[in-house]
């Protein structure tokens, strides 16, 4: 069984191919013609995959004479191997042994009489891509007793098997090893390739002294890693949700440091929270006006960095406005950017000036905002109900309600007359000189409740209310 990993994580060791030969050894093609290899149908020996470890006695005919031979048992694999010590493996087997029913690792040595020089090659069936890695390791279990001219070799190809190179590190030959041992090889040529393959060759040249077992391979594994460059020191940086606030307001900070800091230390000058070790501190509150620095110290395994920035400006809350009254008009302290008037706790729509002409009795208040965006509210001002009603009775209006024309009984002359809507906005003006009264055309006004203020030349003021239908 084998697989080709698709993960290319630079920090991890990735398995690119793992062949245990338990399901047939699909990762390898056996008995290929590479490097003078012979096919299984031609040679005296061949590569095979099985789980046979038992030797035995056999017979072959050499130069017309029957010859007996004995094949020893193949050593079991090391304890702890997945599946046990007698799992399947890829190994050399002799045709003479197979004919005698001996299927474990053995070979017919070339001696110039019963067998001549021969090479048996098995190669990986497909490429592995190591282009994303800077270190590649191949490891496997092996054994081979062999002789001086009978041994195993490991080859690699970087062109899909078109050409092959023998691996000579730590040695070019696998022999004199009658028990299983592990070999791990890492050389630069394995890394950075798109079409890497490995192959095993059994070299069987004429020798008059040789020993079993032959060449055998199991637990074939290719792994790859990338060297992780040292992490540079962090560079401190941060952002704040609002850099200009009013007293008793709070802000949030967000770490923007680069190079993956692992610890944070914040110092908040002038804040109710003097320091924090959180990554992104929130609800940092200020209750004193001023301009304040913020310091951030970040650290990782490679070093630290510190940044101090004048970050927060805290504005004072403006003094509470004062409401005064003149007749039906309320006046607030002047000089603020915006005003909001309230009647009995409810916002009066459209009432946004520093004065407001009232149309009913009740408790009035105003909230002001200065140019820094800071706000304060007045003490409630209770309009004197008796005074308002007395003033309202001084001006006679009829018909009331009206659908358009309204007769105003003035009683004074000359005078200035202004009609106000419910928001206190002037919507109609008239200058008159007849004290008996005057009919005014209000058909263009929208239906609703209106008030009228009449001021005479000598400053006498009269007020009335009407309903436009």
Layout of secondary structure:
Layout: E1 14-19, E2 28-32, E3 45-50, E4 56-62, E5 65-71, E6 89-94, H1 95-99, E7 118-124, E8 135-144, E9 150-157, E10 165-166, E11 177-186, E12 197-204, E13 216-225, E14 238-240, E15 244-246, E16 249-251, E17 253-255, E18 263-268, E19 275-276, E20 284-286, E21 290-300, E22 303-315, E23 323-326, E24 329-332, E25 338-343, E26 346-347, E27 355-357, E28 363-369, E29 375-377, E30 381-382, H2 385-392, E31 396-398, E32 405-409, E33 415-420, E34 426-432, E35 438-441, E36 448-456, E37 461-468
Parallel strand pairs: 15-22
Antiparallel strand pairs: 1-13, 2-7, 3-6, 4-5, 6-13, 7-12, 8-11, 8-13, 9-10, 9-12, 14-17, 16-20, 18-19, 18-21, 21-22, 23-24, 24-27, 25-26, 25-28, 28-29, 28-30, 31-32, 32-35, 33-34, 33-36, 36-37
Question: Overview of this structure, please?
Answer:
Strands 1, 3, 6, 8, 11 and 13 form a 6-stranded antiparallel sheet that branches. This protein starts with 13 loop residues before the first strand and ends with a strand. It is built from 2 helices and 37 strands. Residues 1-11 and 386-393 have low confidence and may be disordered. It folds into 4 domains: 14-225, Jelly Rolls (Sandwich); 238-315, Immunoglobulin-like (Sandwich); 323-385, no CATH class; 394-468, Immunoglobulin-like, CATH 2.60.40. It is mainly β and 469 residues long. The radius of gyration is 50 Å and the shape is rod-shaped. Strand 31 (396-398) and strand 32 form a beta hairpin. The protein has helices at 95-99, 385-392, and strands at residues 14-19, 28-32, 45-50, 56-62, 65-71, 89-94, 118-124, 135-144, 150-157, 165-166, 177-186, 197-204, 216-225, 238-240, 244-246, 249-251, 253-255, 263-268, 275-276, 284-286, 290-300, 303-315, 323-326, 329-332, 338-343, 346-347, 355-357, 363-369, 375-377, 381-382, 396-398, 405-409, 415-420, 426-432, 438-441, 448-456, 461-468.
